[in-house]
Amino acid sequence: MSETPNTSRQPMIEAQGLSKFYGSFAAARDVTFTINQGEVAAFLGPNGAGKSTTMKLLTGYLAPSEGTAKIAGHNMGTHRIEGAQRLGYLPENGPLYADMSPRSLLTFFGNIRQMPPVELERRLEEVFRICHLEAVVGKPIGKLSKGYRQRVGMAQALLHDPDVLILDEPTAGLDPNQIREVRKMIRELGQSKTILLSTHILQEVEAMCNRVVFITEGRLVFDGSPEELGQEQHELDERFSELTQTVEA
To answer: What is the rounded average pLDDT of the residues 77-88?
Structure first.
């Protein structure tokens, strides 16, 4: 991705002093950043850094111990439904019912969202096309490959045509061909949507993103462009190692 962040655009994802404590353990501590309209941002960090926790705070799935999360200007603590209408969320291990087909599952979610039948049918056909699911829409999800199941999860996140996408490890567990397909899909979606995707894979940054937010041990340690993080693979590796050194409490 060659574009640089445009700070004049509307803020679409805002973390303001987000913290989540479990007793004395801080899963996230004073995390603050803003993702503007049209940015595709990598939420980078090692396993256990607090990425998934922060994403759950941003989406309203967890209540913060401190701080505020906003989606498209909506406070997810006080106006979660309004924010959720603008948000598509793909958790790392989202709920997919093995006995249902992609069509029946997405129809179920569309009905829960009270989408009008004509609009729901139009969106079903659109997300099947975007996610390349046409060949498996009637097959049981439990019989699908990991790559296809990931596409079903992506289709669910896209069903209501949200402005913001938050994707937790969208390529985890996929083979190289499946990874290429998902990255291509995300690049295409990034032309019209604001995206935050968590990863610990440096190649994801180079392949898809124009912004990097780096977290380790629950704390933000870097916020900038991929070019600022490093130009070459060895530079990225060195910066990753440097940024994941133990932070002071």
So the answer is: 95
DSSP-assigned beta bridge partners for residue 41: 196, 211
Identity at 158, one-letter amino acid code? L
State both tokens at 104: 């029946």
Count the neighbouring beta carbons within 10 Å of the beta carbon of residue 112.
8
Q: What angle do CA 168, 61, 140 make, to 5 degrees?
A: 60
Q: Are 204 and 198 in contact (CB under 8 A)?
A: no
Contact 62, 124 (CB under 8 A): no
- The domain ranges of the chain are 8-86+163-249, 96-161
Q: CB neighbours of 166 closer than 8 A, spacing ≥ 6?
A: 13, 55, 58, 59, 87, 88, 89, 90, 195, 196, 197
Question: Which residues touch 73 (CB under 8 Å, ≥6 apart)?
Answer: 10, 11
* CATH fold for domain 8-86+163-249: Rossmann fold (3.40.50)
For the entire predicted model, the pTM comes to 0.88
| Bridge pairing between strands 194-199 and 74-75 | unpaired
Give the model confidence (pLDDT) of 88-110 as tens digits: 999 877 778 999 999 999 999 99
